C-alpha cells in the first residue's frame, strides 16, 4: 500500500532542518515516504548544507548498527523502507545578495560537530557522489557504505523535482520547503504546468502578525530570497501576474508565467506565528539524551553537540537566565505531514491574500496583509452572475475606485492557506524526541 504522504523536502540544514529530516525518516512507512531531499543554500553555504545531509545518513548508518547490536528498537522505519534521492540545488538567491545564518547555526550549520566528532563525519569522498567523474579524479573505487540509504543525483535539484512531478501521478507529491524557496521557484519557472501537478507546497516561512527573526518584519527563509517566495506565492492567485515581483533595473532572472495555467497552486504556510511557540527546551532534551549518550548511541552523541551549541547560543542572545528553548520551525511542517488528518490543525477560515515585499529598503521579505476593513465588491452580491473570462466582466470585478494594487479584486491577489493552530504546542517536543531517539 502506498504511503499516505509522499514528500520532497527542500532544505538548508541547519539544526532544526536536521531534526525535521530525522523526524521524517523515523515515520511509519504507511504514513510518509521521503522521495527526495532537495538541498539549497541558506543557513550556511550550499556545500556545507550538502555535507550535513550526507553526514546525517552517515550517522544513521552507525546508529542503526548500534541499535541492532544493543538489542534496541531499530526505528527509522521510513528510512529502511524507502531510498530517497539527494539532489543539489541553488547556491545563491535569484536576485538578492547571499545571506547566511551561521551566526546562529555555527560555521558548518551544526555548531562544529564535524570538528568535535570527526568519527561521525564522512570523509571527503562524498563529493564524488554528486559530481561528474571527469571533474572529480579522486572518485573512490566503490561508493561509501552510508550511501546505500540514499540515491545521489548529479542533476540539479529543481530538475529532479520536475522529473518526479512529471513521472508520478498528479496530486501525489507534496513539496515541504523548509529553506529559501529558490529551488522551488526555479522548478516553477522552468515548467509551470508540470510544477502545478504538485499536490501541495508546505512552506516554513514568513511572519504575518508577529515580528521577524532576521529583521523587524521578515523571517529568515523568505528574506534570504524574497523574489523566489513572491514568485511561488503568485501561483496561488487566479491571476499570478498580479502579485509577481516587480522587474528592477530592466531585467529579471526568470521569465513570467504563461497567461493561462491549468490550476492554482495549493500552498500551506507555517509562519513564525505558529512555529515559534513550539519549542524543545534544554532540560527536557538533556534528560532524554544523556542516558542514550552514556549507552553509546552515535546519533545521541552527534545531536547532543549541535543541540547544546544551539541552546548555548540562545542563552547568549536572550541573556536573561531563562531556560533556553529551540523553536521547532521546520520539524512542525513534518509533524503536519504525519498528522494532517487531526482536526486540531486549523487553517485560517479562508485563504489569505498574503503578498511578499521584494523591493523595500527596510521591509524586504515582509508578509503584507490588507488589514483594512473593506468589502470586496465582487463578493458582496453572490447572486450576480459573472463570467470572469469575459473582458467586460473581468473589468467590472476588478475596477474598484481607489483600490491601488488591486487588494479588493476577486481575481487578483494570492490565496494562502495559513496554519494558525496545531494539536499542541507543549505536545510536539515529546513527539519529536520520542520518534527520533526511541
Automatic annotation (TrEMBL):
UniProt cross-references to InterPro entries, sorted A to Z: Inosine/uridine_hydrolase_dom, IUNH, Ribo_hydro-like
Highest taxon, organism lineage: Eukaryota
Region of interest: Disordered: 131-150
Gene Ontology cellular component terms for the protein in this record: cytosol
GO molecular function: purine nucleosidase activity
Keywords for the protein's UniProt record, in alphabetical order: Glycosidase, Hydrolase
One Pfam short name: IU_nuc_hydro
Domain Inosine/uridine-preferring nucleoside hydrolase: from-to ranges: 7-374
One GO BP annotation of this record: purine nucleoside catabolic process
Family of this protein: Belongs to the IUNH family.
Protein name: Inosine/uridine-preferring nucleoside hydrolase domain-containing protein
Amino acid at each position: 500500500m502506498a504511503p499516505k504522504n509522499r514528500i520532497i523536502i527542500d532544505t538548508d540544514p541547519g539544526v532544526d532542518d536536521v531534526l525535521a529530516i530525522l523526524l521524517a525518516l523515523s515515520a511509519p512507512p504507511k504514513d510518509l515516504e521521503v522521495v527526495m531531499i532537495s538541498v539549497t543554500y541558506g543557513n550556511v553555504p550550499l556545500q556545507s548544507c550538502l555535507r550535513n545531509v550526507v553526514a546525517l545518513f552517515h550517522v544513521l548508518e552507525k546508529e542503526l548498527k548500534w541499535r541492532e547490536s544493543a538489542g534496541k528498537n531499530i526505528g527509522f522505519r521510513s528510512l529502511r523502507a524507502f531510498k530517497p534521492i539527494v539532489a543539489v540545488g541553488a547556491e545563491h538567491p535569484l536576485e538578492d545578495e547571499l545571506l547566511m545564518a551561521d551566526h546562529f547555526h555555527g560555521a558548518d550549520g551544526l555548531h562544529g560537530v564535524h570538528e568535535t566528532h570527526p568519527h561521525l563525519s564522512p570523509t571527503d569522498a562524498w563529493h564524488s557522489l554528486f559530481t561528474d567523474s571527469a571533474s572529480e579524479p579522486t572518485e573512490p573505487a566503490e561508493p561509501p557504505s552510508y550511501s546505500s540509504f540514499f540515491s545521489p543525483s548529479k542533476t540539479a535539484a529543481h530538475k529532479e523535482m520536475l522529473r518526479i512531478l512529471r513521472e508520478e501521478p498528479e496530486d501525489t507529491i507534496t513539496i515541504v520547503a523548509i529553506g529559501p524557496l529558490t529551488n522551488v521557484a526555479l522548478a516553477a519557472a522552468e515548467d509551470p504546468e508540470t510544477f502545478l501537478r504538485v499536490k501541495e507546497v508546505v512552506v516554513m516561512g514568513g511572519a504575518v502578525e508577529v515580528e521577524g527573526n532576521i529583521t523587524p518584519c521578515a523571517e529568515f527563509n523568505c528574506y534570504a530570497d524574497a523574489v523566489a517566495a513572491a514568485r511561488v506565492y503568485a501561483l496561488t492567485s487566479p491571476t499570478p501576474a498580479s502579485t509577481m515581483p516587480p522587474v528592477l533595473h530592466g531585467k529579471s532572472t526568470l521569465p513570467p508565467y504563461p497567461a493561462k495555467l491549468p490550476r492554482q497552486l495549493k500552498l500551506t504556510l507555517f509562519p513564525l506565528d505558529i512555529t515559534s511557540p513550539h519549542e524543545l527546551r534544554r532540560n527536557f532534551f538533556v534528560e532524554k539524551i544523556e542516558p542514550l549518550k552514556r549507552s553509546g548511541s552515535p546519533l545521541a552523541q552527534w545531536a547532543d553537540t549541535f543541540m547544546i551549541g544551539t541552546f548555548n547560543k540562545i542563552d547568549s542572545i536572550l541573556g536573561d537566565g531563562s531556560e533556553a528553548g529551540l523553536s521547532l520551525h521546520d520539524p512542525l511542517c513534518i509533524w503536519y505531514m504525519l498528522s494532517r488528518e487531526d482536526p486540531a490543525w486549523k487553517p485560517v477560515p479562508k485563504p489569505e491574500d498574503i503578498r511578499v515585499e521584494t523591493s523595500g529598503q527596510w521591509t524586504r521579505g515582509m508578509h503584507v496583509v490588507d488589514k483594512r476593513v473593506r468589502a470586496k465588491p465582487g463578493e458582496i452580491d453572490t447572486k450576480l452572475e459573472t463570467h470572469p473570462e469575459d473582458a467586460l466582466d473581468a473589468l467590472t470585478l476588478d475596477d474598484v475606485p481607489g483600490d491601488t494594487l488591486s487588494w479588493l479584486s476577486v481575481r487578483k491577489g494570492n490565496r494562502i492557506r495559513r496554519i494558525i493552530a496545531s494539536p499542541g504546542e507543549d505536545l510536539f517536543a515529546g513527539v519529536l524526541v520520542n520518534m527520533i531517539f526511541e
